[in-house]
Design a protein that fits this description.
Length: 342
Amino acid sequence: MKRKLLILCLFLVVLLAWFLRYKPETAQQLTLPNKATNQTAEQPLPNNFSPTALTNIDGVLVSIEYAKAREERMKQRQALVDKSLDDWRTPIEFYGRVVDENTNPVAGAQVGFGCNDISKTGTSNYETTSDDKGGFSIKGIKGKLLSVNITKEGYYSSKQDNGYYTYAGDNINFVPDQSNPIVFHLRKKGVGEPLVLTDFPVGIGQIAQLHHDGTPVELNLLNGTQAPAGSGQLKLELWRDISDIKKQPFDWKLQLSMFGGGLIPTDDEFAFQAPESGYQPSLVIDMPATNQPWMGEVRSKYYIQLPDGKYGRIDFYLLPYNGVFTLHSAINPDGSRNLEPK
């Protein structure tokens, strides 16, 4: 009897426990998708639930107004991206003409184009050649920036020609004109000479510097070394106002002198034929702070004649602020005025 009563009590306890865990579904429950199992999971509705509520892809309740605003922001962001890419989809046309040092047309010159665009590499390359009138062109491509490179066997390419043209993104963009093509210059190679070429200072990391008080520096142009006073071919002197070292602009003056010879300034890119006469024993660049325009650096080129009559040229660079300079010279040891390298 006691055993039956014990079994009955256990049954009642189990029944009571089951009843307490069971909770009937109410109207305030919402079935949402469960991403992990692709099953539905029951989630309670918020107290302020209204028909304007919906769920996003993460199962989070958001308002329709918020979803619309978010969609509009995404559209605006995409529009900005598309607008920025439009610059790289600009139609490109280009018309050019190649001439030699005597302005004669050069046929058969190799023309290389580089177009910055939206390709996988960011740049597409194209090639063509100049016709019998030196003309060439490209069209039917799209991009933002076009580079143009002209070469031909037996010719020097000019570094002074503009090789880059922007079609979009700048305040003033390049506009092609078929009736007025861009002119590119080549110079036909002649017979070269075994020139004596020197650089000063010699070696990477070396610095040459002039003093601000006019202390002369003399150079031996045949071996690219600094020479003792009175034994060099070229003398350099710099005067620079240091009363206010931080002042810009400032007064400065440079004098270049050739002992027993002379200099002639030139802006010829291919300075291959030295003049026979007209050399001056010294040249002065005087640059007061009030000068307009004022120069804060010197990049100059000169034909030179040495005391023994030999001809050459020098390329000179100077920062007057601290006196740092570099010099490259090319001298024909045979006495010829031909300064084209072999």
